[in-house]
Design a protein that fits this description.
Number of helices: 10
Distance between the termini: 36 Å
Order of helices and strands: EHHHHHHHEEHHH
CATH superfamily: Rhomboid-like
Strand content: 5-15%
CATH topology: Rhomboid-like fold
CATH architecture: Up-down Bundle
Strand order of the largest sheet: 1-2-3
Helix content: 55-70%
Length: 246
């Protein structure tokens, strides 16, 4: 189950969101010629990825920012950019272009710091924009909890698209991060960066939300976008049944 779009169109062009997507894709494509596991690739990760033990020792603090623009594979990149495309434009409209840029970088840096606190001796490079994007999701939850999000559900031979309130989708996502963050296993995913980024996103947006009236802001907008929601012509989608031949 994963989101494919929201019903929350922005009234302004999200230039920063688009620029971040382009930058992430361009950097990923630029690294493709580097052979997997080669010295050149290892050097890039050493210089630009977040290595908790190095930063904890006071070395290469800039990697808290640079690591956001590196990705470990096509699916890693595609998933992050999908989430940024869905949730980034509305938060950029709410915070403004400059405010959203600062917010994104601060949320990503906070996500990296929480990952360092979780495992300060780790020598494993941490890469990806997911911490910063988790921050975007946290801010989105604060401002637009009832915006509709289309979820694609796939299970064996069944699939369909359903629209649910954003708070449900984001709460489930955050719950999964907490479950895995406290879990005993280690599948290579920086769950605490996701948790820290999400929490940072909520905290960074909290002052503006309070200035807007806090729960009064929700009462005014009913938790929905401040403009008409988008409507998409979709319906329940199942794989067509094939008639059995005798």
């Amino acid at each position: 189950m994963f989101p494919i779009r929201d019903h929350n169109p922005s009234a302004q062009t999200p230039y920063v969101t688009y620029a971040l997507i382009v930058a992430n894709i361009a950097i990923f494509l630029a690294m493709l010629p580097l052979e997997q596991g080669s010295m050149a690739q290892s050097r890039v990760y050493f210089d630009w990825a977040l290595i908790p033990a190095r930063v904890a020792a006071g070395d290469n603090p800039f990697s808290l920012i640079s690591s956001m623009f590196l990705h470990g594979g096509w699916m890693h990149l595609a998933g992050n950019m999908l989430f940024l495309w869905i949730f980034g434009d509305n938060l950029e409209e709410e915070l403004g272009h400059i405010g959203f840029t600062l917010f994104y970088l601060l949320a990503g840096a906070a996500a990296g710091m929480i990952q360092i606190v979780d495992d300060p001796t780790s020598q494993i490079p941490v890469v990806g924009a997911s911490g910063a994007i988790a921050g975007v999701m946290g801010g989105y939850l604060l401002f637009f909890p009832k915006a509709r999000v289309d979820i694609f559900i796939f299970f064996v031979f069944f699939f369909q698209i359903i629209a649910i309130p954003a708070w449900i989708m984001l709460a489930v996502w955050f719950g999964i991060q907490l479950f895995n963050g406290f879990g005993p296993g280690n599948d290579g995913v920086a769950y605490w960066a996701h948790i820290g980024g999400f929490a940072a996103g909520v905290l960074l947006c909290l002052p503006k939300w309070l200035r807007e009236g806090a729960t009064g802001f929700w009462n005014k907008t009913h938790g929905h976008p401040p403009h008409p929601k988008a409507e998409y012509p979709f319906s329940r989608t199942n794989i067509p049944r094939v008639k059995r031949r005798d």
